[in-house]
């Protein structure tokens, strides 16, 4: 006989999903089915919570307590940069191998560093700004400067 259900227990499940889309319930079921949740309902909640990240792969945190799931988005540095590029939403099934290009201002880089600060090992904000250009090599240029010059300007 399985152990009795504890309503005060909190479980966290992290998933990589495409923003704004309802994922396959067959991939959700093994992760959240044993916790007593409906994969279809949770998939709809995830799609609703990630509408701002439409078409981007994003990490989602499910906090499950008392058989209720709350969805929160945990963006990576790469997804924050792609969002900062302000590219139009794309249909990922039709448009393949997208080369992301554009310019990002220093204010955008600092904003991304502030958002990533809690998950970084850097002691200061400048450490985060120097760490991000490696992740931000998606865009290659920041207001006409290369990654190396950008790293030097944040010191």
Overview in brief:
With 155 residues, the chain is of the alpha+beta class.
Keywords:
single chain; 155 residues; alpha+beta; three-stranded antiparallel sheet; two-stranded parallel ribbon; 5 strands; flat
Would you write up a description of this structure?
- The protein is of the alpha+beta class.
- The protein has 6 helices and 5 strands.
- A 3-stranded antiparallel beta sheet has the order 1-2-3, covered by helices on one side.
- A hairpin with a 2-residue loop joins strand 2 and strand 3.
Helix coverage percent: 25-40%
Report low-confidence residues grouped into runs of 5 or more: none
Name the helix and strand elements from N-terminus to C-terminus, one letter apiece: EHHEEHEHHEH
**Mean pLDDT across residues:** 76
Largest sheet: 3 strands, antiparallel
Order of strands side by side in the largest beta sheet?
Answer: 1-2-3
Radius of gyration from the alpha-carbon trace, in angstroms:
19 Å
Helical/strand content category = alpha+beta
Shape: flat
Give the topology.
Blueprint: E1 10-18, H1 25-32, H2 39-49, E2 57-65, E3 68-74, H3 77-84, E4 102-103, H4 106-116, H5 125-135, E5 140-141, H6 147-153
Parallel strand pairs: 4-5
Antiparallel strand pairs: 1-2, 2-3
Helix pairs in contact: 1-2, 3-4, 4-5, 5-6
């Amino acid at each position: 006989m399985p152990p009795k259900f504890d309503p005060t227990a909190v479980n966290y499940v992290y998933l990589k999903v495409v923003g704004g889309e309802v994922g396959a319930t067959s991939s959700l079921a093994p992760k959240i089915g044993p916790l007593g949740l409906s994969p279809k309902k949770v998939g709809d909640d995830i799609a609703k919570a990630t509408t701002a990240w439409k078409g981007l792969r994003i990490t989602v945190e499910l906090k499950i307590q008392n058989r209720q799931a709350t969805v929160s988005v945990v963006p990576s540095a790469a997804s924050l940069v792609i969002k900062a590029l302000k590219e139009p939403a794309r249909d990922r099934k039709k448009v393949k191998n997208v080369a992301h290009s554009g310019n990002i201002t220093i204010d955008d880089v600092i904003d991304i560093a502030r958002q990533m600060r809690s998950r970084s090992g850097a002691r200061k904000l400048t450490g985060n700004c120097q760490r991000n250009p490696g992740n931000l090599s998606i865009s290659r240029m920041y207001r006409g400067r290369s990654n190396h010059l950008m790293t030097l300007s944040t010191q």
